[in-house]
């Protein structure tokens, strides 16, 4: 039985351990900026960090949704625009013919102010599998204009348990349907690798990809096969690494 969820769980665990070390200031190499750390400490009591145990227990189910607990995954700090804190909400479903995923990321910045009641600033984006896979599996599901792996802007997570706890100051006029950027992904796992490349660049992408041994299979699912197109897209005009 094909289980890409096992590969995604391994990837999330890698990200969890790296971000935990970074925000806990245990790894000087991934040390966040002072401004990012200030933002992180200001918002983590409202957007509660998911635990490693909770991540592992989620993957015993056919659907993974952090927001059901009102939880998020704080991602490792950014190297550029390092004042922002990247925060992830994940929603994946495996109990259908084509697995679906919505990866929503808010980049949050608290600003240089002393008013504790001031909303933090932020902007976000979502990466999604094709529209037809994101709909409930019914005979009436229609192919939409975004029936391909894509990314779009967002103003908030769109999850009540998260949006009510912490409101982000983001322009109301921000368009959330268009533009829609096509992505070279084939499945939720390769979509997540697109997210890594988006936030951290090609070197980090290959670092994470190479953590999956070439011969390791996940019950019929070979990560490397699903990343071939993305590898070529990221590695254009570059020497093989």
Shape: globular
Structural class: alpha+beta
The low-confidence parts are none
Mean pLDDT: 85
In short:
The chain is an alpha+beta fold. Helix content is 32%, strand content 18%. It is globular and about 55 Å long.
Structure description:
The chain is of the alpha+beta class and 241 residues long. Helices cover 32% and strands 18% of the residues. It has helices at 4-23, 34-43, 52-58, 131-134, 160-163, 188-200, 202-209, 223-234; strands at residues 48-49, 63-65, 71-74, 85-93, 100-109, 121-128, 150-154, 181-182. A hairpin with a 6-residue loop joins strand 4 and strand 5. The longest helix is centred in the first third of the chain and has 20 residues, at 4-23. The mean pLDDT is 85.
Helix-strand blueprint:
Layout (H helix, E strand, L loop, with lengths): L3 H20 L10 H10 L4 E2 L2 H7 L4 E3 L5 E4 L10 E9 L6 E10 L11 E8 L2 H4 L15 E5 L5 H4 L17 E2 L5 H13 L1 H8 L13 H12 L7
Parallel strand pairs: 1-3
Antiparallel strand pairs: 2-4, 3-4, 4-5, 5-6, 6-7, 7-8
Helix pairs in contact: 6-7, 6-8
Which short descriptors sum up this protein?
241 residues; 8 strands; 8 helices; globular; eight-stranded mixed β-sheet; alpha+beta
